[in-house]
Amino acid sequence: MEKKILIIEDEKELAEILGEYLKVEGYEAILAPDGKEGLALLSRYLPDLVILDIMLPGMDGMEVCRRIREKHEIPIIMLSAKSGEMDKVICLGIGADDYVTKPFSPLELVARVKAHLRRAPKGGEGPDTERLILKRESYTAYADGQVLELTTKEFEMLYFLKKHENQVFSKEQLYESIWGMNEFGDISSVAVYIKRIREKLRAHSMDYIKTVWGVGYKFFAEE
């Protein structure tokens, strides 16, 4: 059965070009010109991956991404004309799996689509054989089959790090991704939350949160 790719992009020519490249690779491309129609087509077709532009008429891509993440764990690749690092971190923080800056090569984007589909877990939650399972839609965590008690922010930080396994994030990047640019707070709280998460994981003999000295933190599952 063909994998379905939903392209939510208001630049009609770009969307059609991407659709043609995906069709050549054996995928079914579904096109939506805005966020509202994109969400409607998502519910109708249940695609295997979403390519989502940030700058959309009406509902922007970030809001669309948030709404998708409320119910689905399918891979999301964000497209943007903005190349700033913080823009990328914010997108990853709200649930995107990848961030591609315009202009880009359609072949590169297709390669990323293939890579994310290879990594995408069956059933949306990952195999139950994993020692640590995080369920975003219910904000519940399980360590070796037992409920792991986490606060909302602890869950969000652990989920973010686990989702981007082996990628190092600074305190600043973690703060922006979890708390957001406009929320009042103290960046030093990142270290406090990391310490709490580590203590809870280590109670189950899990040492997944690694410090990269002088840089930041990453999730690394050595098992």
How would you characterize the overall build of this protein?
- α1 packs across α5, α2 packs parallel to α3 and α6 packs across α8.
- This protein is an alpha/beta fold.
- Helix content is 41%, strand content 19%.
- About 3% of the residues have low confidence.
- The protein contains eight helices and ten strands.
- It has a five-stranded parallel beta sheet with strand order 2-1-3-4-5, with helices on both faces. Strands 6-7-8 form a three-stranded antiparallel beta sheet, with no helix packed on it.
Write the layout of secondary structure elements.
Elements: E1 4-8, H1 12-24, E2 28-32, H2 35-45, E3 49-53, H3 61-71, E4 76-80, H4 85-93, E5 98-101, H5 106-119, E6 132-135, E7 140-143, E8 146-147, H6 152-163, H7 171-178, H8 189-202, E9 209-212, E10 216-219
Parallel strand pairs: 1-2, 1-3, 3-4, 4-5
Antiparallel strand pairs: 6-7, 7-8, 9-10
Helix pairs in contact: 1-5, 2-3, 4-7, 6-8
Could you give a quick summary of the protein structure above?
By secondary structure, the protein is of the alpha/beta class. The protein has helices spanning about 10-25, 35-45, 60-70, 85-95, 105-120, 150-165, 170-180, 190-200, and strands at about 5-10, 30, 50-55, 75-80, 100, 130-135, 140-145, 145, 210, 215-220.
**Cα-atom Rg, whole angstroms?**
18 Å
Helical content (DSSP H or I, runs of 4+): 40-55%
**Strand portion:** 15-25%
Please state the overall shape, judged from the principal axes of the Cα atoms.
Answer: globular
Could you give the order of strands across the largest sheet? Answer: 2-1-3-4-5
The chain-level mean pLDDT equals: 86
Tally of helical segments = 8
Biggest pleated sheet: 5 strands, parallel
Structural class determined from secondary elements: alpha/beta
**Low-confidence sequence ranges:** 122-128
Question: Total strand count, please?
Answer: 10
| End-to-end distance | 33 Å
Could you give the order of the helices and strands? Answer: EHEHEHEHEHEEEHHHEE
